[in-house]
Design brief:
homotetramer; about 210 residues; mainly alpha; Tetracycline Repressor, domain 2; elongated; disordered N terminus; DNA-binding; transcription (chains A, B, C, D); TetR/AcrR family transcriptional regulator (chains A, B, C, D); DNA-binding (chains A, B, C, D)
Amino acid sequence: MAAGRSGQTAARRRGTRAGGNSGSHRRGELLGIAAELFATRGYAETTVRDIADEAGILSGSLYHHFSSKEEMLDEILRDFLGPLLERFIAIEKEGENPEQILDELIRHSFAAIDASPVAVALYQNESTMLNRQSGFEYVAEIGKKIEKIWLQVLKAGQKSGVFRSDVDVNLSYRFIRDAIWSTVRWYRPRGKYKHEAVAVQFLTVLHGGLHTT
Amino acid sequence: MAAGRSGQTAARRRGTRAGGNSGSHRRGELLGIAAELFATRGYAETTVRDIADEAGILSGSLYHHFSSKEEMLDEILRDFLGPLLERFIAIEKEGENPEQILDELIRHSFAAIDASPVAVALYQNESTMLNRQSGFEYVAEIGKKIEKIWLQVLKAGQKSGVFRSDVDVNLSYRFIRDAIWSTVRWYRPRGKYKHEAVAVQFLTVLHGGLHTT
Amino acid sequence: MAAGRSGQTAARRRGTRAGGNSGSHRRGELLGIAAELFATRGYAETTVRDIADEAGILSGSLYHHFSSKEEMLDEILRDFLGPLLERFIAIEKEGENPEQILDELIRHSFAAIDASPVAVALYQNESTMLNRQSGFEYVAEIGKKIEKIWLQVLKAGQKSGVFRSDVDVNLSYRFIRDAIWSTVRWYRPRGKYKHEAVAVQFLTVLHGGLHTT
Amino acid sequence: MAAGRSGQTAARRRGTRAGGNSGSHRRGELLGIAAELFATRGYAETTVRDIADEAGILSGSLYHHFSSKEEMLDEILRDFLGPLLERFIAIEKEGENPEQILDELIRHSFAAIDASPVAVALYQNESTMLNRQSGFEYVAEIGKKIEKIWLQVLKAGQKSGVFRSDVDVNLSYRFIRDAIWSTVRWYRPRGKYKHEAVAVQFLTVLHGGLHTT
DNA sequence: TATGAATGAGCCTTCATTCAT
DNA sequence: TATGAATGAAGGCTCATTCAT
């Protein structure tokens, strides 16, 4: 649902950058095109000319809106990761018990993939590179904060007895995280599976396991 | 038959000169270096010079061993995917029941990650690009064959009643597949988790679910 | 006569619209900013955007005042070189003897550096480029006229016996010229040396030499 | 004379840089071409393509020899400034009295201009830019060391009474320095003036002044 | 007068690849 | 087998300039 959308574009929220016209309409459009291409072909494999071509302008003209290709990537990631973390924090705070919180975290994750498949794909595909890239330290930092939230919920659940105690929380978290976010590679918003349905299926297996009892 | 083909190393299949000892020792070394770099930095991000530097030779000299950068990637992938598929086929054939076969498929997957982390990482990270790249159609083909095996096992399990029937097999397969293969991003052969232990943990959650009953 | 022409500012000479108040105030401001930057960073190294930034407008807006970057350079140079040549002509005409004329030429040179350091620096630094640039032939022409004046004075002085005859006039002229105009690189109007003092020092060495007798 | 030449190329003296083949024959040739162009058109105005064209290769091929355009400039400057400073130090050390040392410094300066007009021009024309450019701090440093030597000689001469005391040493030094090095702009090694002759003329004026007594 | 968007040409640099030695 | 030199195509970016609003 709409709750997944981050609303306003980050350019709006941010101050001036190169050129000083960070909050224009065109900027947003170009960012969308760039994000699409970055997600599809990969960041390094997408040329500035590709983006410009798609936008119907010359490559040099992009630099009227952005000071570098990297800035585009940065803006796309911030626009996605910031709100995502905030939402996770809110879910944990407002949740009633570990069980309900975990489910909500999972449901929101699938909703986020549905709402911003492009940003998620980018995050998934470029994370290795991003960890090496200076200026993108915040990506790993947000990743760590998110991990902390999930781990706390899992631990709390084990303590209260709703989650089984014979599994390693770290491993479980990683299994869950990877299974969820990897769906971006095959999930199609307009395909036969709705994101809520995918979430339900995932929760079903996660809760009770694959085997009959 | 096909089984015999994948047994030999890729270097073997490619003759460079009369005689046929083209699968030289040096070639294997260089391939190892390339694989390592491809997996770490990404295929596109790794330059031929990076590989040559690491090998202590000049970039042009690499072309005495391989006809192109792509050939290296190709060889690495074939060497990994061929045997992997064969093993999966064998597991299915020799298995006694869906439950046991699935467990074995999973166990072998984690073992493969442990044995060839570099190749797995390459396969994981470059699959999107590979799908677009002509000459690498076999990668998707093997992927489909593997998928078929897993899906058959899951369906058989549902039919025989050992796997619950209220979950979509396709979705389940993807969740399982992604969770398993994604571990390559954080699993370290010499780390605190042994691959068998990871497999056991994964099987535990998968069998009975995260929740206590 | 010619004297009248150079009295008016260059802006005056160039009409942009009906009426003729094209030599607007803003134009002069912008020219000052451009001159400052050209002198500091070099003409080629100064971008039109640098100038616009400094003026608080967008680079495209500069073209309402000037038809090109080159026009700015042209105007700055003309405004400086025209009056300079006239003054030198006047000094020669009004002077009484070679000795006094040379001293006056030198004193005025230092005064010009003090008054228009920016234009002098520009002239010094870009002269090589200017000699190649079409449309700037007048710069070399004025240079030649100035040289002629100085050489005549030196020759006359040698003839009259006040300047020693065992030195080549051409070489002497160049030594003198270069020593004088190069001071623009280190002379600071507000520094510890006043321009008259620098002139006196220069004249002292030039007249009697560095050595004691 | 031969003493002015710096002999071996700096590439020889230095360790590996990009590519690791710093001391090749081709490298020296390319450096000469680059120096010539840098001096003639200016560093910024000379494109890498200009250099490559002149060398009869493609611009990209230059990067087999140098890691950047800047590296070429750096090497040219070091090759000139290093030996120059050393020579000045030697002259001061071996000199007998201020008078003789100053004359020798001046004579060697003119010889250096004759031997390496290109490097001198480069140093003269780009010094402002060089002062701003990180990585070229050594240029200003060497300049300061050279200044120190000259100033010491002048001061010593004033103390011993051979140089007049009513002139500011700093100003004198700058007049002398600028007059000498500026000759590079018009001095032509194959022209009518030999560098020794120019030096003699300069010394004549400097010693006794322009005026007859 | 000024803005904002865009052009078009060119710049420095990278990189897979080739080939004579 | 390896070197050293070069190719040719492309990539990210800069910049003077134009023009509709």
